[in-house]
Design a protein that fits this description.
The protein is mostly beta strands. It is globular. The protein has 2 domains: 9-142, Elongation Factor Tu (Ef-tu), domain 3, CATH 2.40.30.70; 160-231, YaeB-like fold (2-Layer Sandwich). Strand 11 and strand 12 form a beta hairpin. 26% of the residues are buried. The chain has helices at residues 139-142, 165-172, 177-188; strands spanning 9-12, 32-37, 55-61, 73-74, 85-86, 99-112, 115-121, 130-136, 160-163, 202-210, 213-220, 223-231. Keywords: Methyltransferase, S-adenosyl-L-methionine, Transferase. Belongs to the tRNA methyltransferase O family. One of its GO terms (molecular function) is tRNA (L-threonylcarbamoyladenosine(37)-C2) methyltransferase activity.
Length: 235
């Protein structure tokens, strides 16, 4: 028996901080990630048979929120960040047990030396997040065609994203530039600003850490402008 869930791995993803992480999986299809398995889970036997499935359920801990605790009601961004509803009627990251779950694309298992990795797509999880379980997604039971989505029934509106000449030049100078551009564009199209600012002109310049880049952007009505990109130095 464990007093707390056993951590079986860690997420490696482009999202180096909570800000600008997609609020649901599948919203940033160009982003890839991987789980670095650890402990007893880091063995070929534990992942045997995964190749039969196209998608997986990932259960993880909102470890950056645990110290903040939780409240019975929350303000979902889809309701403008003003109306309160019960925490169990939301996907708020502030939950009684800080457990999250995401249905993600399975892209294969890789091995580097003795280290096992599970390669994923469409992940909405912060880099370094502890993983506590992995389960196969079963279309016949997990996909319910007649399901209703309440206040979040419709996909979110996407903003148009434009890149400054400086940002375009930096991306053009890198061999992974096209991939970085796609991910940055898909992330910012969600408009990660506070809900009450969506669709409005904002004089503030925001910054988010994606991959190894500091991405700075502003918003004008329903448009997001990437003003600059700069490498993030470690240390």
């Amino acid at each position: 028996m464990h007093d707390s869930p056993e951590i079986i791995g860690r997420i490696h993803s482009p999202y180096k901080e909570k800000f600008a992480v997609p609020r649901q999986p599948k919203l940033v299809p160009s982003a890839t990630a991987r789980i670095e398995l650890q402990g007893d889970a880091n063995c070929p036997e534990a992942v045997r048979g995964l190749e039969q499935f196209s998608h997986l359920w990932i259960l993880f801990l909102f470890d950056q929120n645990q110290a903040a605790g939780w409240k019975p009601t929350v303000r979902p961004p889809r309701l403008g960040g003003n109306e309160r509803i019960g925490v169990f009627a939301s996907r708020s990251t502030f939950r009684p047990n800080s457990i999250g779950m995401s249905a993600v694309e399975f892209k294969g298992v890789t091995q580097e030396g003795r280290q096992q990795y599970i390669e994923l797509g469409n992940v909405d999880i912060v880099h370094g997040t502890p993983v506590i379980d992995i389960k196969p997604y079963l279309p016949y039971s997990d996909a319910i065609g007649q399901a209703t989505g309440g206040y979040a029934a419709e996909e979110p509106h996407l903003a148009a994203v434009f890149f400054s000449p400086q940002a375009e030049a930096l991306l053009a100078s890198r061999p992974d530039g096209p991939h970085l551009r796609s991910v940055i564009q898909e992330v910012l199209a969600q408009d990660p600003r506070p809900a009450y600012k969506k669709g409005k002109t904002d004089k503030k310049e925001y910054a988010v850490h994606l991959f190894d880049l500091n991405v700075r952007f502003t918003a004008q009505d329903s448009e997001i402008i990437v003003t600059s990109l700069s490498p993030v130095t470690s240390g």
